[in-house]
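Allow me, if you will, to draw on your knowledge of protein folds for a short while. I have a record of one protein: its chain in single-letter code and its fold written as discrete structure tokens. The full record is reproduced below for your convenience:
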Amino acid sequence: MAGEEFLFSLGLWFIRAFVSSLICLFMGYVAIRIISRITTDIHEFETIKGHPLATSLFISGFLIYAGFVVFGSMVNPFFLSQSVMIGAYFNLQRLLAVLLSFFVSLLFGWLFYVIFAKLKPFGIDLDDINKNPVAVGAFLFSYEVFLGLIVYASLTLPIA
């Protein structure tokens, strides 16, 4: 009997982590699409298409993002929460923290773009990265790691 209970608990934990991960991965996809629209002078996907190194940087960044998301979701999933006060299916406080972090990452992505591309504090034009597919791949890689760290932090944030 104890073995069945353990397997049931393990299966439930896996389902919780899996659903939480899927939601966060979808948010990452949406974030990449939005950041692509925010950075109007950088043509991310048109530039990296057909360039293996640039494409691999983009995919590598998304894999790192996925790693942060899956790890955070395994440690503290927000689907099928154990709190009966908030809801039987979602830990709404945790989900709100993840959604807020998603919007914070977009805000910072936009803010950094405006500062570096428009104000040029270091005398460089950020839009110059559009001239090289590897540079665009590195830009996407960096944003995905940035987003992954923020989502991971929101998943592991101690919420009472």
